[in-house]
Write a structure and sequence with these properties.
The structure is a homotetramer. By secondary structure, chain A is α/β, with parallel strands linked by helices. The first copy, chain A, folds into 2 domains: 126 residues, Rossmann fold (3-Layer(aba) Sandwich); 163 residues, Dihydrodipicolinate Reductase, domain 2, CATH 3.30.360.10. In chain A, 30% of the residues lie in helices and 20% in strands. The first copy, chain A, has 11 helices and 14 strands. Chain A has a 7-stranded parallel beta sheet with strand order 3-2-1-4-5-7-6, with helices on both faces. In chain A, strand 2, helix 2 and strand 3 form a beta-alpha-beta unit. The first copy, chain A, is globular.
Chain lengths: 346, 346, 346, 346
Amino acid sequence: MIKVSIVGVTGYVGLELLRLLQIHPEVEVKHLLSRSQAGERIADLYPQFAGSSLADLRLEAYEEADLTDSDLVFTALPHGISQREVAKIYKQGIKVIDMSGDYRYGDIEVYENWYQIKHEFPELAREAVYGLVELNREKIKKASLVANPGCYVTASLLALLPVVEKGLINLDNIIIDAKSGVSGAGKSLKEAFIYNEVNENFKAYSVAGHRHTSEIEYVLEEVARQEINLIFTPHLLPLKRGILATIYTDLSTGLDEDGIIDLYREYYAGEAFVQILGDKLPELKYVVGTNNCQIGLKYDKRTGKLIIISVIDNLVKGAAGQAIQNMNLLFGLKEDTGLTQTAFYP
Amino acid sequence: MIKVSIVGVTGYVGLELLRLLQIHPEVEVKHLLSRSQAGERIADLYPQFAGSSLADLRLEAYEEADLTDSDLVFTALPHGISQREVAKIYKQGIKVIDMSGDYRYGDIEVYENWYQIKHEFPELAREAVYGLVELNREKIKKASLVANPGCYVTASLLALLPVVEKGLINLDNIIIDAKSGVSGAGKSLKEAFIYNEVNENFKAYSVAGHRHTSEIEYVLEEVARQEINLIFTPHLLPLKRGILATIYTDLSTGLDEDGIIDLYREYYAGEAFVQILGDKLPELKYVVGTNNCQIGLKYDKRTGKLIIISVIDNLVKGAAGQAIQNMNLLFGLKEDTGLTQTAFYP
Amino acid sequence: MIKVSIVGVTGYVGLELLRLLQIHPEVEVKHLLSRSQAGERIADLYPQFAGSSLADLRLEAYEEADLTDSDLVFTALPHGISQREVAKIYKQGIKVIDMSGDYRYGDIEVYENWYQIKHEFPELAREAVYGLVELNREKIKKASLVANPGCYVTASLLALLPVVEKGLINLDNIIIDAKSGVSGAGKSLKEAFIYNEVNENFKAYSVAGHRHTSEIEYVLEEVARQEINLIFTPHLLPLKRGILATIYTDLSTGLDEDGIIDLYREYYAGEAFVQILGDKLPELKYVVGTNNCQIGLKYDKRTGKLIIISVIDNLVKGAAGQAIQNMNLLFGLKEDTGLTQTAFYP
Amino acid sequence: MIKVSIVGVTGYVGLELLRLLQIHPEVEVKHLLSRSQAGERIADLYPQFAGSSLADLRLEAYEEADLTDSDLVFTALPHGISQREVAKIYKQGIKVIDMSGDYRYGDIEVYENWYQIKHEFPELAREAVYGLVELNREKIKKASLVANPGCYVTASLLALLPVVEKGLINLDNIIIDAKSGVSGAGKSLKEAFIYNEVNENFKAYSVAGHRHTSEIEYVLEEVARQEINLIFTPHLLPLKRGILATIYTDLSTGLDEDGIIDLYREYYAGEAFVQILGDKLPELKYVVGTNNCQIGLKYDKRTGKLIIISVIDNLVKGAAGQAIQNMNLLFGLKEDTGLTQTAFYP
């Protein structure tokens, strides 16, 4: 049994980790750390755990908890704050999977520029492995610190990697129009996220400036070995979970729609968590609650555009599930252990 | 491995059975029967199964499928239609768990009166065991045909059994004000269930006439050994899953609120799927996606009323999950095998 | 033209007043007061007013605004805070319609007991007229200070007045099971009201203790001239607007369902905003966006219970619309002026 | 008073027309025609009209109704079916505003190609005026038959007209990523539109093939006097009303963001129903329930793209409201008569 702890358990990502770890057959949960609610029993705060074997676990304060009995710690903390906590745990020789943006960039300058936060552990950032399994599987197996990818980024990269890697699209005209559920914003107590403001509403936000733009570009540039400037526009959906990205690219190859679909199927052959749909297009409900990414493809002859549609659950493949997939790799387990659920439907 | 098949797999209950069985460690799914979509691959119809080990299963027509290799068949069919299919399968010596109302009443007259359908297999109805595990555990273990309880009924009975069995309330003044999500209506293609008619709407329906009234009374009368006429009012919530029942009773005992809570805790001690909350009241989000029933209790001194609030997921504890709980009993498995998930949150 | 101002315009009730007053043919809006956002242009804060004739109005601070050019001020402030603001304005000889609970009880003791707030203007509370038009029309016409009724209270009283006034029910066994949309909670920045916590969720709250219990009892006791203790249970619906109350009473008369329906129709004959539905039961979508209350009635022979179902829009008939109805009376206008919209559907 | 009738009143567009006409100060509603529910009282079918002055109107069958006392008929019928009904009414010398796609193309070939329906009244199609008021105001004033624009088309054209007319963008790389609420699909009784399938779901549909592509191109080509092939991708939002279009274009001019915003403000100066927002981006909740279109603009220096965001209520500015705006023009009324509501919020 892998002994794991969670730092920052009361956020949506922390709780989703707990939900998934609770049914993972090879995991024993040791410590749940929380800044604001230390001392409380998890089932008193979150009665969904009342019937669970974890019901009686109590949250612990950061300062008081001793994590040295853990094989692995998940840190689910805000950007900027995570840096230091990760470093502290890592220095104790414990493996860490970090959910924040703090260790996703080997090049600290890009991070500091887009996040406007100073990075105090640049050498650690260079050591961290970017945890997109489908891209970095072998590196992750040997890693001690994994930076779990951003949610929008995961949906976008899995959609774009095949055509970027194979050089089939014009890299100067990529448009990612992405839509996310509200859980992506975490438990923010802002007027914009209260029910009355969200239900029956829809909007774009952070247009031409969202941080995930830089993370998508950063990874694609490594793959393409050239600079990429793309458009990424996030929108807020009136629903809880899920990201759908509609991606517009100029295809620079003779392949038709079927050829492209075949190419994607080949690229992702053997992947447990990526499915290329054929004549159906992916919908959020096909993946919500699961670690799956589903991808659909349409080629528009009139304009020569390839439209790629990609869906994930932002809290699973976009966060907690992908983190557990990383954990499975780190500890030599079958990659889909504890992650074989199908979507929560209806 | 238990070999199971599902008749009527494309309804919400059938698909929920498949979702849960897919991760059940002791089950092998053999046949999926469907009237309208025989021949199709399950993952083509329901792409949420595209990444699953069941992806390539094909639906079979009723007439053509040979179920004799199954240890157990779940029938998820409309009331009235289920009767005959159940009988047909049962006569082949296969165990059956029926999700419809057809075999829930040993007394055919009550059934025929409330359902306005003739019952053609009265002897089989008498043989069937009513599958509310918390009430009938020992009988179920020896059963060959289990009638899985109604969703509203499950939420209501678990809330009322302790006080009715112990004779602590006035049986002439029980009011059940129940609220259900839309999945309770199945995939009905009626104007009343299209999105535009449901979202931002709320209504009562079948007031003073819903069939589940009779099922609640039928079971409670056996427990109380006296006639009971109660009020049951269902409402349609603008959400997909979940039932919350607010139950009003006149307490005829000297117990205070704490005493009542203790009594419920004792009554359900050892039950894996019933949790009595203390100072928090249950909410749908604590149980959605799980086989749990959570119960909260308030005593109003000013009026002498005990208010019982009970929540379940209508598709899990109210249908597919309870059916699998029954299956586990039938086959000597630990009762919570495959059913230990915590709620889908947020 | 009636010159009106709003104190507390940025809450949901304040903004709903503005939405309705903006299309009222006899009203000129003078001042919009706000504690937190003084100086801002209304259309910059709430772009829904960008195309309106009011777009350029600027919010004013309480201390700086001179309201003496107003014929009427609506105060839309939290309970407790409203007391003093109302008194201040009233003393300047301006008519006031107060949306809070502060002036709804002539008997200060009841208020102080249920609200746990000291009332500093008891004489003014006695002078205020309770603004349920269908009950107090003649008094309102001559009033200078109107206490606009609570939202749950409006739905409950309109449903109960006919049978209570005529003595047709047992007053010791009234149960009001009420369900409200989230706008009833105002713009509270609490975790419980963020989208992720509300959508696909449902719960009861303030069971056996909500303040509106006292307001319903207070008014009914005056009508019935006897003490009444009833049960009022509010629930939170995953929708924005609307209250549906399901009310259970013991009928103590020989009338059948049709007789009761006739009695209600007679009682509310001539009322512009109360409709008694016949064989259809009321749904929220029939009244959302309007000042209407719709009532449905079912008699259950088996138990002798009369079930009354009542629906309103909590922000219109339960707040801003009823306030404008009161305003129309105060200024001798036709009672439905500016309030003749039909429901926002779908 | 203008005497108007509605053919096809029981669809969402027909009912929205009735909702808006009911409060229009210059309109008298004469006939409501319905194929399926002739003979019924409108308030019995749609109890939201129970308190309205129109409550007692009865639906009439097509064959039996005599529309010759109407000054204007709105036809709210499915594409293909509308053709003939419009022609029949028009030939009686009655003005018609048609909500379908049948008369939107002077060039019948384009219509027949994209709709795959034969047009039997080509001369009438050439006579019809396309009812986008902001483009065709003067022509509409003199028209007898107005083809009301499509909902997606309205949102897209109002966003694109300024830059297309002034030649400021590359016409070969226009991408319209549009998202609509479910009411856009009408009352379709298809599984895809039932509540359980829509809530908490999101998807693209008709990718690279939606008919509105042709309508957008058709109008823009007339304005630009050159062929245009653009990408239009519709998505289904889990909400009832509203369209948001995110439009990506390559700006071919030296203007910066402020310059573009000024240009749009100038272009739409004097328009009652188009608002250019400044530093806020438009959200659906700013326009739902109104005839307004709000537009926001962002220029992304890194890629040289202009991102235009446009929002409307698909049933109002995208259908019934725009139709009434057209009616006001046809009959010489002030263009915003009966249409001055602000958004339904929250």
